[in-house]
Amino acid sequence: MKKFFYILCVLLLINCQKEIEFDLPDVEQTFVLEAVVESGLPPRVIVTNTQGYFDPLDSNSFLNMFVDNAMVELHDGDTTFELVYSFVNSNGVILPGYTSFDPEIIGQYGKNYTLHVQVGDKEAHAKAQIPHPVILDSLWFFAYEAYDSLGFIWAKFTDPDTVGNCYRWFAQRINSYTYNYDPPFDNVKGTMKDNRPLAPIGSSTDDKLFNGLSFDFAVPRGEDGILEGPDDQGPERGFYKRGDTVLVKSTTTTYPTYLYVRAMENQAVSNGSIFSSPGNLPYNVEGDGLGVFIGYGVSYDTLICE
């Protein structure tokens, strides 16, 4: 009798299924800015159109996302520069965007920048600052005995006694692979391990917990997403190894940038989780567009892992 009851319940549940169809409302298309001013480098501004969540994405639609007819102006506190449409280096990835070849617009410490972008009858603006960098006291590599030649980079750092400093860490292995791996990485010998500075998850912080203090901290190795190399999986993932030569790019930035990077990394970590909370990133672009305008005050160090 119980078996018959269970079967009857299952049949009733199956028969109660109903297909629901609905039309998603059209959302007005707008443009998105990804802009960076960085000490020692020309500005780079990428302007794209928004895409529908369920719109198909292929090579043609990807290229059509980039806006090539925007008017982009950057004011450095003294002079207004009109940026030209070209190809920009977005942290090692070459993409269509806007920049300037005028040496007077190279990013400088302590300057405040205002960005103005117009696409058709829509306008957006944003502000960013390039703070003065805070130099790392020292760097070293520590290999863990249990992992043979693998370990993390450690740094000693002294934070100024002023509340509100924010930082972000990047690093790039600039040495080459000395041997090939199994396919599809059977041709990596002689190529540089990282083609750009990479930021690990947790790369950005403010100084609320360590204002004015000197302390040591360890940093794992960042990954390059779909461009990851042969040692980005398995036991070497997240580690540096003896013999690596690492270019460390430490940056000082502003609180709005820290909030954006923290939220972006949280979204990346929780991608696909049914328990994650959806939400918009804390952008600093105002007007008719969306996006972020970031300023980095950069210092560089080179470390040989021994």
Secondary-structure map:
Layout: H1 2-15, E1 31-38, E2 44-49, H2 59-64, E3 71-75, E4 80-90, E5 93-99, E6 112-119, E7 122-129, E8 138-143, E9 150-158, E10 166-173, E11 204-206, E12 214-219, E13 240-241, E14 245-253, H3 255-269, E15 286-287, E16 290-304
The fraction of residues in strands falls at 35-45%
Compute the gyration radius: what is it? 24 Å
Total domain count: 2
Overall pLDDT, averaged?
A: 88
Order of helices and strands: HEEHEEEEEEEEEEEEHEE
Shape: globular
Question: What is the strand arrangement across the widest sheet?
Answer: 2-1-16-14-10-11
Q: How far is the first residue's CA from the last residue's CA?
A: 74 Å
Largest sheet: 6 strands, mixed
Unreliable stretches: none
Q: Helix/strand/pairing class, anyone? A: mainly beta
Give the fraction of residues assigned to helices: 10-25%
- Total beta strands: 16
Number of H- or I-type helical stretches:
3
Structure description:
By secondary structure, the protein is mostly beta strands. It has two domains: 31-129, Immunoglobulin-like; 138-252 and 298-304. It is built from three helices and 16 strands. The strands form three sheets. Strands 2-1-16-14-10-11 form a six-stranded mixed β-sheet, with helices on one face. A six-stranded antiparallel β-sheet has the order 5-4-3-6-7-15, with no helix packed on it. Strands 8, 9, 12 and 13 form a four-stranded antiparallel β-sheet that branches. The protein is globular, with a radius of gyration of 24 Å. The chain starts with a helix and ends with a strand. The mean pLDDT is 88.
